[in-house]
Amino acid sequence: MVWVRSEYAGPLAVVLTVLSVLLPWNVTYSASISGGSVLFVRFPFAQIRYAFGVPFAEAVRLFDPMSAIAFQAGSTIQLAYEVWAVGAAVLAVALLVAIAYYFREDAVESGPVDPVRLLGGLLGLAGVVLAVATYLLVTRGFPGVPLPVGVVFLFVFAGLLLTVERT
Q1: Which residues constitute the domain of residue 133?
Q2: On the chain, which terminus has fewer CB atoms closer than 10 Å, C or N?
Q3: Which of 165, 93, 81, 145 is nearest to 123 (CA)?
Q4: 140 band by pLDDT with thresholds 50, 70 and 90
């Protein structure tokens, strides 16, 4: 059974890559933190932290991966944030490939690597790296249950792109 026709594989790869960058890879709700609760929505290139009823925290705070690492420096979950930065770098490379593919389709398709498979591989690699970051959040004492929402989509998108029939 063919999920995607060959002639639509390129545009699909570009759309799925852009969508992967826009989806949150992780959502975590942490209750009972200093009398309040905190919601973390982690996108590949940004983390939004919503604090509800926590007296010492700003209500909404935005972090990029590097500033989030600096904020967690010395904590048990610093490694999870460093792994997140690696996943963001992989997705940045995928996004650059997708942009090049969109604007220079003929040149990219004539290269030595099939761009659809390359993007599928990069999305799969990002999924693995961000799954590891989620595992580290769970096992290193981060309060709450991290839900790897975008990680699931990364694996599905990767599977779709890696199995498409190219002619």
Answers
A1: 6-23+65-163
A2: N
A3: 93
A4: confident
